[in-house]
Fold this protein.
Amino acid sequence: MDVAVAEQLKEGQRRIWASGDWPGFAPIVQNVADSTVEAIGVEEGHDFLDVATGSGNAAIAAAGRGARVTGLDLVPELIDAARARATDAGFEIEFVVGNAEELPFEDDSFDRVTSIFGAMFAPRHQMAADELVRVCRPGGVIAVTAWTPEGMNGQMFKTLSEHMPPPPEGFMPPAMWGTEDHVRELFSSSGDVDCEKRMATIDFESSAQWMEHCERNLGPIVMAKAALEPQGKWEAARADLDALVQRFNEADDDSMLARAEYLLTKVTLPAA
């Protein structure tokens, strides 16, 4: 992918995730961060990095287990929110603005590295994967979560894309990080790769309330609505999203209970 195109895509991602209210949305996937931090054995004394930390879900979880924590995100507004949250929780966490393709850290700096639904949005997947490996120490563990293409959130991105202008040539969909073959290829020369499909539970009073929550808070939907509504095209996109939610809704009453599938990829690097 051309460097200029990659930079344009990163700027687009910065705008998307600065829109809406990710800190207000993030609690819905806090349990994913908690379980991922637990799965890779974060413990007291570890140097821990969370890439694309958002408002600090995994960073807070790791700090609670006694690790020395650094969180990085492309979006300055989210870094500000993460700092405030850490302060409120009584944790000393270093938060920095940066991007997953060019991590501002020395080689072999961290014992554990995570990215919870974050690195998947980097335009150049291999660069992001290589950076996660570069900053992780020999014998360390990397964990990445990504929505699968078949799951509810992967299908949400697909549905939105059908109503938006086509992406530039060379664009790699973020949900590719949710396919085992792709992530195994990304980390093929790095270490032992383990993949496991898991579910995040979404529980709301109703599907209508869920969609209203997404329209107010979830960056990709906020930005899609802002682009499509002036053209008179949002109503059709919203109808498709409503139908998608109903397809995944498992509740037998008027409430909303859905499971969003994601792939947890763990990479254990060889010891020195």
User: Anything to note?
Assistant: Strands lie at 47-51, 68-73, 94-97, 110-116, 136-147, 192-204, 256-268. The chain has a mean pLDDT of 95. The first strand starts at residue 47 and ends at 51.
